[in-house]
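Thread: Newbie trying to understand structure tokens

Hi all, I'm a second-year student working on a class project, and my supervisor (Dr. K.) asked me to get a predicted structure for one chain before our next meeting. I've only ever worked with sequences, so writing a 3D structure as a token string is new to me. If someone could post the tokens and maybe explain what I'm looking at, I'd be very grateful. Here's the chain:
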Amino acid sequence: MNTKNAFFGLSQKNMNTNIRRRRVSRRMGQLALLALAMASPSGISAATIWTGPLFSFTVASGANPNLAANEDRLTTHDWITRGPSLGIYNAATEGGFSHYISPADTAWADGTLANYGSLTYHDWNTWAKDMHGSPQATVGVPAVLHLLTDDIYLSITFISWTSGGTGGFSYLRSTSVPEPTSFALAGLGAALLSLSRRRKQSL
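---
Reply by user tm_fold:
Sure, no problem. This is what the structure looks like when written as tokens:
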């Protein structure tokens, strides 16, 4: 009787072990397919959110806006700088500041990246002067900057603004977060898929 009970107990244990192995294998297979899908071009573009470490950018009063060191080159389309007077502009496409246009290819809103999708965006002139009264009044205001061509959202907070015809400003902004390369994702997917197959063969 004891031998019979032991036999059935061992069989039940083996059955439970096999079930657990199948579940693990199935889960690993799903992860492998997900990794491979992420590595494959989908043709669907989505907004990019920059949540990387904060970067401090400063243009000193009287600085030459035509020098690369005085341009915050966020992307190939957006180089933020400022001349000796007026507002900031996009040196990648503009030679100077234009009211209610500059910086070209950008949109601005009060708020944080946590709710970037529900914010109301404006050109910088409207945001800084019409909404806040002056560029100086935007110092310390948490904001979100939308780079239109590349569909990138980043956090930005001005920490200084110099008036009096000498230019100069500074801000803190978020940076991009490096994404896994397609080769790394494909390698991960292949490894998981191979491991899943080996586990199935051992069952």
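A couple of things are worth pointing out once you decode it. Confidence is low (pLDDT under 50) at residues 39-43. Residues 2-43+180-202 form one domain. Feel free to ask follow-ups in this thread.
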